Amino acid sequence: MKILLIEDEKKVASFIKRGLEEEFFSVDVAYDGEKGEFMALTSDYDLIILDLLLPKKNGLEVLKSLRANKINTPVLILTAKIWGQMITSRSHLLLLN
After folding, report:
1. From CA 30, how far away is CA 83, in angstroms rounded?
2. What pTM, to 2 d.p., does this model score?
3. For 1-97, where are the alpha helices, taking DSSP H only?
4. Transmembrane region positions (predicted)?
5. In the chain, how many domains are there?
6. Among candidate residues 38, 41, 36, the one with its CA nearest the CA of residue 77
7. Taking a C-beta distance cutoff of 8 angstroms, is the pair 16, 45 a contact?
């Protein structure tokens, strides 16, 4: 299984990547939204792990762009936001499915 991890925190990305690779997944990493979007649009992935708080382009913008470009790869969203801050974002996420 080929996974794209879009996460700007290098320590977090390294931890997740290492864990997935120990389970024999192939993992590519992008450290900002623009690079992650480019990688998702130009390569095939079985899963995208997407942080919401990214430099250059936030995770919701990346996800909207992918769906607009007919990229229907499953996306697992990571975030450090607390639930109260997610209410508005959550309604946007539901619309993207």
Report:
1. 25
2. 0.83
3. 10-22, 33-42, 59-68, 83-96
4. none
5. 1
6. 36
7. no
Check if the beta carbon of residue 6 is closer than 8 Å to that of residue 51.
Answer: yes
Model pLDDT for residues 27-42, shown as the tens digit of each residue: 999 999 999 999 999 9
Q: CA-CA distance, 32 to 21, in Å (whole number)? A: 21
How is residue 94 annotated by DSSP?
Answer: H
**Number of other CB atoms surrounding residue 66 within 10 Å:** 20
Residues of the chain with pLDDT under 70: 81-97
**pLDDT in the model for residue 64:** 94
The answer to whether the beta carbons of residues 16 and 3 sit under 8 Å apart is no
Pair of tokens at residue 86: 């997610």
* Contact between 40 and 47 (Cβ < 8 Å): no
**CATH (domain of 85):** 3.40.50.2300
| Per-residue confidence (pLDDT) for residue 19, from 0 to 100 | 96
